[in-house]
């Protein structure tokens, strides 16, 4: 498991109070983990803080699953 | 006009969580005031308040204590970040009131005929102050998406409606320290006018935060003389009064159309018979010196109730432990005239402190319990009244007496006044 995935999972579990077993790469924040649109905004803010990156609003709209977040963050970090 | 009765009560105050626990403390004359524990008061001229005793140590609370508040029994940590404390308090008191009323709307029609009218004097002062600092230090992108919905006053009514599926009128009152009384009076009118059959009504407040204490200190409204003896600090009508003591919490009632309550066999505590409102048109924080605004609110409530002033047995005063106390007492003397010696008067703020937007609601509940148990609640710390009065000033302990009709007064900054009258249902 990649370091990014583990850190993203921890944030998602903490913020959504989600069952760790359900927080897998293909899990959708809204459809599978009980988030609403405001939770999504907060998750993106938490990812920005954890990885010290900026996630523009148009990119944030496409981050719907754990895997989406990991992919975006890894690409961003790879520059 | 349809008759409106009270069928459910919920209380969360500095005296604790739960109606019966609260009422026991009130009748015994127990103070809920203590040192502020929720922030460092170094540099503040006032270091005391009526905090809700909680399992996390707030207000001197501890797990296992009787009547201690536990946030986690109301909502999960995840949900709590979406709401400021005043909303948590409103939800907790509404849960108790609805359970007490035994009202759980299940059909779509029942849901649409059940509304919510819960207000707050100030709302989310804490998150507003905290978020302003984040905005200044970290910029606009760090502002939480939950900031606005956690601070908005009408999210009390919104959250309660979502939690219980209540789809009727959804409204909220903001009239400073008269909020709770206006909410109950206005909600009763919605039932009387057939907009709803049941209304969840009241007020909530959580302003024991640095900016709240500093702000009221700047208004010269807060008590500063009793930091070492907090239980003595709130002393309405006493010559050594020193300003009001801030409290926090919520009071919620379930109001119901009389026949609706009877048809389902609900316990009826009392009927809301009178409601009066007025404005002072005088000053932003001080009451008019002749007490005319309060007088006219009481007079209107008596007229609406269709009773004589001689029918009133007990008055729960606004009585905040300030210079305004005797102005109010003077207005009550003027209203009652020869009947004054037969009227019991007290201020339960001597025990709870001043819960601002929740005050009118918790005091309405104390009036209702006074009718239920035929006991007038006392004023504590009234050791040396500033002047004489013909009114029966109930002191120190609850006084057993006949109480068929009780009136609750609430007056707010801006010169807004409300009186609500409750009557025993025979």
TrEMBL record, chain A:
It is found in: Cytoplasm. One of its GO terms (molecular function) is acyl binding. Keywords: Cytoplasm, Fatty acid biosynthesis, Fatty acid metabolism, Lipid biosynthesis, Lipid metabolism, Phosphopantetheine, Phosphoprotein. InterPro entries: ACP, ACP-like_sf, PP-bd_ACP. It holds the Pfam family PP-binding. The keyword Transport does not apply. Residues 2-77 form the Carrier domain. The modification O-(pantetheine 4'-phosphoryl)serine is found at residue 37. The keyword Signal does not apply. Its main location: cytoplasm. One of its GO terms (cellular component) is membrane. Pathway: Lipid metabolism; fatty acid biosynthesis. Gene3D superfamilies: ACP-like. NCBIfam families: acyl_carrier, PRK00982.1-2, PRK00982.1-4, PRK00982.1-5. Belongs to the acyl carrier protein (ACP) family. This is Acyl carrier protein. It comes from Brevundimonas basaltis.
Automatic annotation (TrEMBL), chain B:
Pathway: Lipid metabolism; fatty acid biosynthesis. GO terms for molecular function: 3-oxoacyl-[acyl-carrier-protein] synthase activity. It catalyses: a fatty acyl-[ACP] + malonyl-[ACP] + H(+) = a 3-oxoacyl-[ACP] + holo-[ACP] + CO2; (9Z)-hexadecenoyl-[ACP] + malonyl-[ACP] + H(+) = 3-oxo-(11Z)-octadecenoyl-[ACP] + holo-[ACP] + CO2. The active site is at 177 (for beta-ketoacyl synthase activity). SUPFAM superfamilies: Thiolase-like (SSF53901). Gene3D superfamilies: 3.40.47.10. Its EC number is 2.3.1.179. Keywords: Acyltransferase, Fatty acid biosynthesis, Fatty acid metabolism, Lipid biosynthesis, Lipid metabolism, Transferase. InterPro entries: 3-oxoacyl-ACP_synth-2, Beta-ketoacyl_synthase, Ketoacyl_synth_AS, Ketoacyl_synth_C, Ketoacyl_synth_N, PKS_Beta-ketoAc_synthase_dom, Thiolase-like. Belongs to the thiolase-like superfamily. Beta-ketoacyl-ACP synthases family. This is 3-oxoacyl-[acyl-carrier-protein] synthase 2. It comes from Brevundimonas alba.
């Amino acid at each position: 498991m990649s370091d990014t995935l583990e850190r993203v999972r921890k944030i998602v579990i903490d913020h959504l109070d989600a069952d760790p077993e359900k927080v897998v790469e293909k899990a959708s924040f809204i459809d599978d983990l009980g988030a609403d649109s405001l939770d999504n905004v907060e998750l993106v803010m938490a990812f920005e803080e954890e990885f010290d990156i900026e996630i523009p609003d148009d990119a944030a709209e496409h981050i719907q699953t754990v895997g989406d977040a990991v992919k975006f963050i890894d690409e961003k970090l790879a520059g | 006009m349809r008759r409106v009765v009270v069928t459910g009560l919920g209380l969360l105050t500095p005296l604790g969580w739960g109606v019966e626990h609260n009422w026991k403390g009130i009748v015994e004359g127990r103070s809920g005031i203590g040192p502020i524990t929720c922030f460092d008061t170094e540099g503040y001229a006032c270091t005391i308040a009526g905090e809700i005793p909680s399992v996390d140590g707030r207000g001197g609370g501890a797990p296992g204590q009787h009547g201690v508040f536990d946030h986690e029994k109301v909502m999960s940590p995840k949900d709590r970040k979406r709401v400021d404390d005043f909303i948590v308090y409103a939800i907790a008191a509404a849960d108790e009131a609805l359970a007490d009323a035994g009202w759980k709307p299940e059909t779509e029609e029942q849901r649409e005929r059940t509304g919510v009218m819960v207000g707050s004097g100030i709302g989310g002062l804490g998150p507003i102050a905290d978020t302003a600092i984040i905005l200044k230090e970290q910029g606009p992108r760090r502002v939480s998406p939950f900031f606005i919905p956690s601070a908005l006053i009408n999210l009390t009514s919104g959250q309660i409606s979502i939690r219980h599926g209540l789809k009727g009128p959804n409204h909220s009152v903001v009239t400073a320290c008269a909020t709770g009384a206006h909410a109950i009076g206005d909600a009763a009118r919605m039932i009387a006018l057939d907009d709803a059959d049941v209304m969840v009504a009241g007020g909530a407040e959580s302003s024991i935060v640095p900016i709240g204490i500093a702000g009221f200190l700047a208004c010269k409204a807060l008590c500063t003389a009793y930091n070492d003896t907090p239980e003595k600090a709130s002393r309405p009508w006493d010559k050594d009064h020193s300003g009001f003591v801030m409290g926090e919490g919520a009071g919620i009632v379930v109001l119901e159309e009389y026949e609706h309550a009877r048809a389902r066999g609900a316990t009826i505590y009392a009927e809301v018979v009178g409601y009066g409102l007025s404005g002072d048109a005088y000053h932003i924080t001080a009451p008019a010196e002749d007490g005319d605004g309060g007088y006219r609110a009481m007079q209107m409530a008596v007229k609406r109730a269709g009773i004589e002033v001689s029918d009133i047995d007990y008055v729960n005063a606004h009585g905040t432990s300030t210079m305004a106390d005797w102005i109010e007492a003077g207005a009550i003397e003027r209203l009652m005239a020869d009947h004054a010696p037969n009227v019991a008067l007290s201020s339960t703020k001597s025990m709870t402190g001043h819960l601002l937007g929740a005050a009118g609601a918790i005091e309405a509940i104390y009036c209702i319990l006074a009718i239920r148990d035929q006991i007038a609640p006392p004023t504590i710390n009234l050791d040396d009244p500033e002047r004489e009065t013909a009114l029966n000033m109930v002191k120190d302990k609850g006084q057993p007496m006949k109480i068929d009709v009780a009136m609750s007064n609430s007056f707010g900054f801006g010169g807004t006044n409300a009186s609500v009258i409750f009557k025993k249902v025979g």
